Amino acid sequence: MDAIEAVERHFGVALDYRDAPGWRTAGEVFRSLLAALPPDQRDLKDLWPIFAAIMCAETGADPSRVGPETLLLA
Q1: pTM (2 d.p.)
Q2: Who's near 10: CB < 8 A, 6+ residues apart?
Q3: Would you list the domain boundaries of the chain?
């Protein structure tokens, strides 16, 4: 949850926690982030790398190895 809250703080949004039971991968959380972002921010070039870096800051994982299919808990 700390990583999810860090994403929310960084992007200034609140993710829809009704989606949380389906969050199994980083890509599923990212889709919730996209839905929460204003339309003009959804197409930012570095959005995924920023998201991955924030998620990994809490876990110590290598953000370059995190893809949409990466499991949140492995």
Answers
A1: 0.93
A2: 50, 54
A3: 2-65
